[in-house]
Amino acid sequence: PGQPYKGGDFFAFLPDNRGGRRTAVLLKTAFEQGLTFQIKSFNGEERVTWGLIPHKTSWDGGKARNGYPDAQYLREVCTVL
Questions:
Q1: What is the spatial distance between Cα 32 and Cα 59, in angstroms, rounded to a whole number?
Q2: What residue spans define the domains of the chain?
Q3: Nearest-angstrom CA–CA distance, 9 and 48
Q4: Does domain 18-80 have CATH number 3.30.390.130?
Q5: Which of 1, 25, 37, 50 has its Cα between 20 and 30 A from that of 81?
């Protein structure tokens, strides 16, 4: 608190279907409550990073690379939210 930090560009993807739209509403609420991001120290520099809520940051690569396909993602993220 009270220290400068660096921001960043963050992108996440959801499917355009009923489950994806429902998840988007929950993610918006989490964002408004300050739960989406956190600040961490990297090499003595404070930076904004993703928080504990899992996000799909790629269209592909599967679960191992935070991408799709991942059949369980919507269920898992809704459980966290």
A1: 25
A2: 18-80
A3: 9
A4: yes
A5: 1
